[in-house]
Design a protein that fits this description.
This protein is of the alpha/beta class. It has one domain: Rossmann fold (3-Layer(aba) Sandwich). The protein contains 8 helices and 7 strands, in the order H-H-E-H-E-H-E-E-H-E-H-H-H-E-E. The chain has a 7-stranded mixed sheet, with helices on both faces. Helix 5 packs across helix 8. The longest helix has 14 residues. The radius of gyration is 18 Å and the shape is globular. The termini are far apart. Bound molecules: S-adenosylmethionine. The site of S-adenosylmethionine (SAM) has 23 residues, from helix 3 and strand 2.
Length: 242
C-alpha cells in the first residue's frame, strides 16, 4: 500500500500514538499554535486547517473555540476517516475536504489559517505559492500560523535533531532506529530553514511575522495579513555606526 507523505504509519489508526514518539513536545507545539490566535478575533472564528491528519489539532480547536467553524483539508482519505470518527461530536462545525492543499481552492474570509507538521512536504516555490493563497484567503485582521519542522542554518547542528529525537524516544522506552524502521517519518520531506520560510512569508505579503515557539528543529511561526493602524510594527534594526 502506498503511504502518503505525512501519514507516518501504514496503520493510520496508530498515528496518534506514533506521532507523539516521533515529535518531541508535540502537544506543546499544538498548544503554541492555538495560543497564538489573537483574542481580539471574533468568537465565531472561521478557521481553515491544512493537513488535519487524524484531527488531533482540530479537536483542540473545537474545544478551545466552541463557536468556531472549521474547514479541514487533508489528501489522505484514511487519515480523514479517523478524524471524522474522532470528531463526530463536533460534526456540525467541521467541513472536511479531501484534497491536496497545494492545489485545492480555499474558502475566502478566514480569520485564521492553521497547520501543523504538513507544509514541510512542499518545496520552497510551492510553499511561496501556498503562502500567497493563504494570504488571499484571510480576512484583513487574519492570522496564519504554522507549527512545523525546519532545517538548522548549518548542517553542523544537524546532529542535535537526531540527538533530541533519540532522547525523546528513549524516555518512552523505544530506540530511535526501531522507531524509524517502523514509521515513515521523513519520507517526502522538503525541509527548509526557518529564515527561508519567514522570508517567503514576507514576499507573500504578510506583516508582523514572528516566531512564537521553537524547540530545536520544531517551530511555530506566523504572520498577519495586514498591519492594522493601531498595530505598531517594531522598526527594523538600526545598526550603530561603528
Ligand atoms: C504528520 S501529519 C500531521 C497531522 C496533524 N496536523 C497533527 O498535528 O497531528 C501530516 C498530515 O498532512 C497531510 N498532508 C501532507 N501534505 C499534504 C498536502 N499537500 N495536502 C493535503 N494534506 C497533506 C498528511 O496526509 C497528514 O495527514
Amino acid at each position: 500500500m502506498e503511504i502518503k507523505p505525512g501519514e507516518v504509519v501504514a496503520d493510520v489508526t496508530r498515528f496518534d500514538e506514533h506521532i507523539k514518539l516521533i515529535v518531541p513536545r508535540y502537544e506543546e507545539m499544538h498548544d503554541a499554535v492555538i495560543r497564538s490566535i489573537p483574542p481580539d478575533l471574533p468568537e465565531d472564528l472561521k478557521i481553515l486547517e491544512l493537513g488535519c491528519g487524524t484531527g488531533e489539532l482540530t479537536k483542540k480547536l473545537c474545544q478551545r473555540f466552541p463557536k468556531a467553524q472549521i474547514t479541514a483539508i487533508d489528501y489522505s482519505i484514511r487519515m480523514l476517516e479517523v478524524a471524522r470518527e474522532k470528531l463526530s461530536p463536533y460534526c456540525g462545525r467541521i467541513r472536511w475536504i479531501e484534497g491536496d492543499f497545494a492545489h485545492t481552492d480555499f474558502p475566502s474570509g478566514c480569520d485564521v489559517v492553521i497547520s501543523t507538521l504538513a507544509i514541510h512536504h512542499l518545496t520552497d516555490p510551492q510553499k511561496l505559492e501556498l503562502f500567497r493563497k493563504i494570504h488571499k484567503a484571510l480576512k484583513t485582521e487574519g492570522w496564519f500560523v504554522n507549527g512545523d519542522v525546519v532545517l538548522f542554518e548549518s548542517d553542523r547542528h544537524a546532529f542535535l535533531h537526531d540527538q533530541v529525537r533519540a532522547e525523546h524516544a528513549l524516555t518512552h522506552g523505544v530506540a530511535l532506529h526501531t522507531l524509524d524502521a517502523e514509521t515513515h517519518s521523513g519520507s517526502g520531506d522538503n525541509l527548509s530553514t526557518l529564515k527561508t520560510q519567514l522570508a517567503l512569508l514576507e514576499i507573500a505579503g504578510f506583516h508582523s511575522i514572528d516566531v512564537i515557539w521553537k524547540y530545536y528543529q520544531f517551530v511555530v511561526y506566523g504572520g498577519f495579513k495586514y498591519c492594522l493602524p493601531n498595530d505598531h510594527e517594531r522598526p527594523p534594526l538600526a545598526l550603530p555606526d561603528f
